[in-house]
Amino acid sequence: MAALGTFSYLRSHEHHSSWTEKLGWAPLLLVLLIYAGSQLGFAPITKLIISEVFPTEVRSTGTSIVFLTSMICLAVLSKLFSQFITWFGLHGAFWFYSGVVFTCFVFGYFAMPEHAGVSLVQIEKDFKK
């Protein structure tokens, strides 16, 4: 997303327009990469983590609440996108979303414990502590 914001920023300035016109295909490629990265990385990992975090007896309810909250946040961010473009410009909106994704990555890296080779029963015991 940061690359898409940078391309949009450079395209909005006249002195960069000569080479951004040659790269007219780049936004399509970047959008496809964002979608592929989301579907191959962020979305499945989130679902796996949710299945490990909640104990078996409340897993379905907890998962439903997490996905409901996620969809509400997605709807709010989608609704605010046009306002972000007004406030920050197209490039600023993409940079803002890049910052949110980076913050989520850093939080996940430091907050989520490693569970490779550990059973679900042991993971439940770890989270009960």
Description:
By secondary structure, this protein is mainly α. The protein has helices at residues 2-11, 17-22, 26-53, 59-111, 120-128. It is elongated, with a radius of gyration of 19 Å. The relative contact order is 0.12. The model has no long low-confidence stretch (mean pLDDT 81).
Q: How big is the Rg? A: 19 Å
Cα distance, first to last residue? 38 Å
What is the number of beta strands? Answer: 0
The number of distinct helices, counting runs of at least 4 residues, comes to 5
What proportion strand?
A: under 5%
Alpha-beta classification = mainly alpha
Q: Can you summarize the main beta sheet?
A: none
Q: What's the shape?
A: elongated
Q: Share of helix among residues?
A: over 70%
Global mean pLDDT: 81
What is the element string, with H for helices and E for strands? Answer: HHHHH
Low-confidence stretches: none
